[in-house]
Every structure is written in structure tokens, then in C-alpha cells.
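User: Predict the structure for this protein chain, please.
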Amino acid sequence: MAPFALSKRTSAAVSDVTTFRWMGKNARGERVRGEMHGVSDHDIRRQLSSQGVIVTRLTRKRTLPGMGHRIRGQDITLFARQMATLIRAGVPLLQSLDSVANGTNRPALRHFVETLKQDVSSGMSFSRALAAHPRHIDQLFVHLIEAGEQAGALDRMLDRVATHKERLEHLRARVRKAMYYPAAVVAVGIGVTALLLIKVVPQFENMFESFGAELPAPTRMTIALSEAAQHLWWQMLLAATTFGWLARRMVRRSPALAFQASRLMLRLPVLGPVIERAAIARFSRTLATTFAAGVPLMSALETAGGVCGNLVFEQAIERVRHDVSAGQQLHFAMRTTGLFTPMALQMVAIGEESGSLEAMLNRVADFYDDEVESRVDTLTTLMEPLIIVVLGTLVGGVVVSMYLPVFDLGSAI
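Assistant: Here is the predicted structure, written as C-alpha cells:
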């Protein structure tokens, strides 16, 4: 329990790094100043004291939230790519870590790399130092670096990690685009309609009062919606925000609810196949990468299951792992889940029979990467006319209902 607790605290500290401005005197009594990244003022004072600086003033630098104070997936990918380049060029590990730390302007990443450097310089292996940060470093990264240390091919494994993460990030970005694009269309339509109801419709309402005639039913309905929006807009906004926050919190806290949400995502008419193909591609790519590095199949399956991005697939792969450990073939265990496509199952079966499982898994990943990209491009193309229909229906409906009394008045004249 102790090592896990320590690694959890270390990972949390890296994510809470802050930029401090300091002033003080060096060993010669000269006034010096600068900026430094750390998790607390005590941490900064300790670092400066080790450099012979007596701190006289220390303040936190004010920055916009999230500006470099959180480690992103792209930061870890860039870190792996830079480390691979430096080590391949013959730069020692500690010096490579120092170069990467000094070359980034993101405080959280710099503190993370400096922490790794301190751990490695104290005698810890690079893989163990990375394993102490499970919040940012996954098991795939740790397994490959451990294999690279044992085989003397650290640069090749770092390069493989970077390439793998770049492909996963590209795939994840395509899936996000498929999910966010429809939501953005609906949000824009609702926003424009709300603006018309709150700002434009009241102007027409004042004009209609001077007519003294009964208004058409669509116009009365629009005016009623406008009055409700004017008086209740902040309650509706608060209710929507609260509902979204509560739903997200419940999904995070309830494994059963999170599982049902993942299952629902797979059953969506257009997005479901995209999410399914993306999960298969991630699983295949990760399993191929770890298996090629000499990681045992059981550990490789555990790592691959954690990157699928869908709880239904994660639980299914855990069952696959259990069945394979009981002696079943991989393709047969995958078939019993009912989640993998016939093409993926056939390719895995061929790979097992021919001893080329890594190559077959990479082909499966490449195929579904291309299919996800093609489906997202098709969805984007189809969404463009849908945008026109949604905005035209919402905005046009409001505009037409407001001009109906004017048309009636013109026909009467």
C-alpha cells in the first residue's frame, strides 16, 4: 500500500504545480530575482536554498486557469519524442531529462521532468520513476521503457511510445469531432433562438399591441415562449448547468451508471459505429505494440483494455484476459464477447496460426483508423445541410411567426 500511496501523492503534486516569483540574495550578497515552478512556497524556498539563495520575497504568479499548469496527453507524447531523439543522439539519460525540462515553457511538464530526473539521479530506474506517476504515465509506457532498459534499446522504445501515442491522439481527436460537432450545431441553434426570443420578439410584441386584433396561434405561441425566456432564462440556464454537472458527477461516481452510459454510446445510430471502430483500433494498436516489445500476453491484454475508451470494451477485454489465461485462444475468447467485428477476429486468428500476431493486429488498427476517419468525414459532410435545416427551422420559425400578423394586416388593407 505504501508505494501506491506515495506514487499517488507524487502524481497529484505534479498536477498542482504553480509558478512563483522570487527575490533574494545570493552567496555574494547580490540581489537576484526570477521565476520558479513548484508545488508550494516551501518547495521553492528549499530549491533556492540548495542553490545558495536567501529568499526575501516570494509570491505566486497570476496566470489564466489551465495555462500550462496541467499535464496533457500531448505533453507526454512530446516528452517521449524529445527523449527518443536525444538518447538516439548519444545524450545521457540525466542530461536528456535536463534538456527537456529546460526546453519547455509549461510549468507542470517541467516540474514532472525535474521530478523524474531527481528520482533517476537517486538510483531509481527510468521505468520505475515513470511508474510513480500513474496519473500521467500509463502501463504501456512503463512496460515499453522497462523492456527498452533490459534490451539496451531505450531510444527505440521511446520512439515507439511516441508514435503509438500520436496515433491514439489522432484517433481520439477524430472521435471527439464526431461527438462534438452535432452538439455544437444544436447549441448554436438554441443560442440563436434564445437571442431572438429575448431581444427581438419583444420589439414586435410592442408593435402588435397597437393592432388591436387577435394574433395568429403561431405568433401567440412565440410570444409566450419569449415571455417565459425573458423571465426564466437564468433559471433554465442554471437548471441545465446543474443537470449536466450532476449527470457527469454521477457517471464518474457510479460504475454501473458509467457502464450503461458506455453501452448507450455504442448503440447510437451514427456515432455508435465510430466509437466501436475506434475502440477496436485502440485495442489492436496497443496490444500489437506491447506484444512486439516482449511484454507477456496477459500484461499486454491488461494494458490494451485500459486504453479502449469504453467501459463495455474494457470489461469484455478483462473477460478475454481471463479466458486466455484459462487456455483459450485469443481469437476465440474475443469472439465470445460479441463486440469484435468478423474481420478483426479473422485477422487475429490468422496471426495466431501463422505466428504474426503483431503484424495482423497492426493491420486491423490501420484498417479501422482509416474507417473512423472516413466515417467522421462523411458525418461532417452530412452535418452541413443538417446545420442549415436546424438553424432554418429554429430561426425561420420565429421570424415567420412574427411576420404572420403583418401579412394578415396587409391582406386586410
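The first helix runs from residue 2 to 15.
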